[in-house]
Amino acid sequence: xxxxxxxxxxxxxxxxxxxxxxxxxxxxxxxxxxxxxxxxxxxxxxxxxxxxxxxxxxxxxxxxxxxxxxxxxxxxxxxxxxxxxxxxxxxxxxxxxxxxxxxxxxxxxxxxxxxxxxxxxxxxxxxxxxxxxxxxxxxxxxxxxxxxxxxxxxxxxxxxxxxxxxxxxxxxxxxxxxxxxxxxxxxxxxxxxxxxxxxxxxxxxxxxxxxxxxxxxxxxxxxxxxxxxxxxxxxxxxxxxxxxxxxxxxxxxxxxxxxxxxxxxxxxxxxxxxxxxxxxxxxxxxxxxxxxxxxxxxxxxxxxxxxxxxxxxxxxxxxxxxxxxxxxxxxxxxxxxxxxxxxxxxx
Length: 347
Description:
The structure is a single chain. By secondary structure, the chain is an alpha/beta fold. The protein has a single domain (about 15-335), classed as 3-Layer(aba) Sandwich (Rossmann fold), CATH 3.40.50. It contains eleven helices and 14 strands.
């Protein structure tokens, strides 16, 4: 069901229409700045082990992505966390586009506007790595600068270790080679619930609470993110997450163990920018210290922020731009102060 399928504005649900219209005005700030594209991801037989052998065959699933900037500009591929939509990177992409970059933001399989896989057991890290590999191939196969938030960063580390020829630079948004089991369990249990938001106050309270670690983010930005991560459901008479619930249940199974990627971290050959929310419960100080001591990296601390920074703050997007241009060397540690909040009427 599309967001256009709303009750009559004169009905008691008119409050939803007002919330929707306000969100649409926020979306309009990005009109004409990007193209919504898709490519056919091909799920190989080797990643269908849970299906009966007689039913295994390659099949395609559409992957949605936003494409900002000219095709011949330096390319940054951005991928979000386990429950993020590609438009979460809209502020970063708009800023970098104005500074001469091309930014591609991808929806993971089972999230946002991408299609769903045939079996919940196929939502695995190996599938997501294959999606990343095919996405880079679709973009031309040349090495890309890769930005990953949370789960996206975990997969970016693994891809850069296994396929160094595909990744020229790596930006990790509040994620490292270790995430504690307790933190992963807590997050997965929250995500696995199929929330229905039947009032705007409900979505602002629940999604807003989930975003409390994003840092000092304006209310209009939170509404924009909430709008992108949900869709209207006539059946539920409210908004629901724009995700395949089976993908989030699969993540809960995977989260029974702590994440440890130190072997992959040790194999990286590309430059690394680490963005660290100083109040993060996922990227702990001990992990940051070990990353800093193990190789030359550029480390940017973000105050008053947890897991994960939205990257809508202009000082944060400028730091990413300067690092991509080679103007922030390694080893280097810095702190990024908060910028003035954006004007809600412009990108």
